[in-house]
């Protein structure tokens, strides 16, 4: 399985987990919902780290166009990543959060995550497959 295939599968798991977190926050006590949010946070962090530490360097090694694509990917998705992590970090740091606000904010976060996944899968991953399949000369130019 390629790295892109693994990341694609992680998207399925993140989407499923985000639905579970929404359910947990809506139906469970705050104490019972916290582990689900913490687990979701760790999953998001691991996924983003894999993209940043594994996929971006592979693209950057594909020459100037690959580096440009890697830079565009990081720039386009940084805002969404920050929004998700800010919510999760704030919630974990709040001793007695307001349930209505958490539900509202979580809905925004899951919508942002869904948009991020759609952007990656529709626009970015297909380009990655092309760049990663191209042989590259020692000087960084495609052969």
3D architecture notes:
The chain has four helices and no strands. The chain is elongated and about 55 Å long. The protein is mostly helical. The model has no long low-confidence stretch (mean pLDDT 84). It has a single domain (3-133), classed as Four Helix Bundle (Hemerythrin (Met), subunit A) (Up-down Bundle), CATH 1.20.120.
Key features?
single chain, mainly alpha, Four Helix Bundle (Hemerythrin (Met), subunit A)
Brief write-up:
With 143 residues, the chain is an all-alpha fold.
Q: Which CATH class is shown?
A: Mainly Alpha
Question: How many individual β-strands?
Answer: 0
Question: Helix/strand/pairing class, anyone?
Answer: mainly alpha
Query: From the alpha-carbon coordinates, what is the Rg to the nearest angstrom?
Result: 18 Å
Query: What is the beta-strand fraction?
Result: under 5%
Count of spatially separate domains: 1
Please count the helical segments.
4
- Uncertain segments are none
Query: What is the average of the pLDDT values?
Result: 84
Q: Based on Cα principal axes, name the global outline.
A: elongated
The topology string of helices and strands comes to: HHHH
Report the span from N to C terminus.
Answer: 25 Å
- In helices, the fraction of residues equals over 70%
Major beta-sheet overview: none
Indicate the CATH architecture.
Answer: Up-down Bundle
């Amino acid at each position: 399985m390629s790295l892109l295939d693994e990341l694609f599968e992680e998207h399925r798991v993140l989407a499923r987990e985000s639905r579970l977190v929404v359910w947990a926050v809506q139906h469970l006590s705050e104490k019972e919902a916290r582990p689900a949010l913490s687990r979701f946070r760790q999953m998001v962090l691991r996924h983003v780290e894999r993209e940043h530490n594994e996929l971006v360097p592979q693209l950057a090694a594909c020459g100037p166009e690959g580096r440009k694509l890697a830079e565009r990917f990081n720039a386009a998705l940084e805002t969404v990543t920050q929004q998700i992590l800010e919510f999760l970090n704030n919630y974990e740091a709040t001793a007695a959060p307001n349930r209505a606000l958490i539900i509202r904010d979580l809905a925004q976060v899951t919508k942002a995550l869904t948009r991020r996944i759609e952007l990656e899968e529709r626009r970015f991953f297909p380009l990655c497959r092309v760049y990663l399949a191209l042989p590259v000369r020692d000087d960084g130019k495609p052969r």
